[in-house]
Amino acid sequence: MELWYTEKQTPNVGITCKVKETLLIEQTPYQHLAIIETEQFGRMLVLDGMVQTTIVDEFVYHEMITLVGLNTHPHPRRVLIIGGGDGGALREVVRHPRVEKATMVEIDGQVVEASKRFLPEISSAMKGHPKAEVLIEDGIHYVSQHKNEFDVIIVDSTEPVGPAIGLFSADFYQSIFQALKEDGLFVAQTESPFFNTDLIRRVFQDVSRIYPLTKLYLASIPTYPSGLWSFTLGSKKYDPEKITAEHCPDFPTRYYNPTLHRAAFRLPQFVEELLLPGNRLSGRNEGV
Ligand code: SAM
Would the CB of 82 count as within 6 Å of ligand 1? Predict the structure, then answer.
């Protein structure tokens, strides 16, 4: 008998994948966790019914959430990752030659353990990499306890539900501002420009009130709702669009390159319009 898994991405749209095998299903103190092996995308981490990462397309998300910020900063020595329990963002950060130490703060130890066991290609840096530190605690609390410490902060969160709601708040962006050094910058994943327009607009407005420079960029990720994903970057000093190839260390990538780095900030007209100052929220947030 064929088995298919469907994520209902909105009340009206879903993505359906043919399942080879269900490897793990458990309830953690924070969320429902599943790892399934699919025919098309390989192993897939699913939290509360939402696809977090898959072996086949994870490289897009993990390169784009990390390398754009790391290559914008001339010396990203100290890096903090909030969330990111599958380890993919950490893997990219520690292989960057200018990074000296990366701390990852994930609230759910069971996501880390499941990823280490079933997603070795993604989780490798969490198994004792010399530049990596993995802490199991609430990222909101951790950030509030650290001042003027990080060059780059990456918010690799789940969708804004449960423990991740606070990771999309203006107070949290303020707290990140304080945890960054005086020339620091941060990047957060901010969902789909097709399905989460109000969220993107609100986050962009909140970040713009706090950071001298706020920019949105996009990447194409097949298993995420609508396939087009946004990231919001807040910077105290460095402009991500001013990078040149010399900023970018020469190591192998599969999606990111310096030309694409700059192109990712060229937005479709409907996304440009979403971000216009004074643009009011519609009251509809279609995705979540
Ligand atoms: N790439 C993914 C996406 O966009 O779907 C996100 C990957 S990662 C698995 C997200 C992680 O954020 C989860 O493991 C979740 O436990 C963690 N998380 C949620 N709220 C958190 C918080 N307040 N502090 C730290 N980690 C948190």
Answer: yes
